[in-house]
Amino acid sequence: MNKVGMAIEELHRAENDLAGKLLEISDRQKVDHEIFYLGRDLARWSQQHVRELARVGRDYGLDLDTEPEDDHTILARLRQKGSELLGRHHEPGLLLLHDLREIHRMAAGVSLDWEILAQTAQAMQDRELLATAERCHPQTLRQLRWANAKLKESAAQIMVTG
Question: Which of 17, 20, 40 has the alpha carbon at shortest distance from 110?
Fold first, then answer.
């Protein structure tokens, strides 16, 4: 496999992981409707990116799964139920901060991978790969900004109350 193929494959894995983490935090924070619904919307972006990477990966000899991993398992339902039972105690708040930090780190890494792929596509004059990066990267940046904004909004209250 060539270097571009390896970069596409790594980004495919990272987008899948980010989608899974967004679904996980959404399930775990079900009592917070903003996080529950917006987390699911943001996960759908990463899931679409997985499909697009699988499509453009074919040009580089890759056979990537076009269907993103999904989080409709028994464990997901248990996390949702646990979230409902815990409500808004301070321990779930610390868990929220942890989850948001992880989302931020993951989205930052995915963003860098998109940047590498875009620069590579531009140098290779691969219009399809560049168009994919230009479509997907802004959504990743929005995921990153959302996690950052949610951290800023929540951190002080969570850390000071108790």
Answer: 17
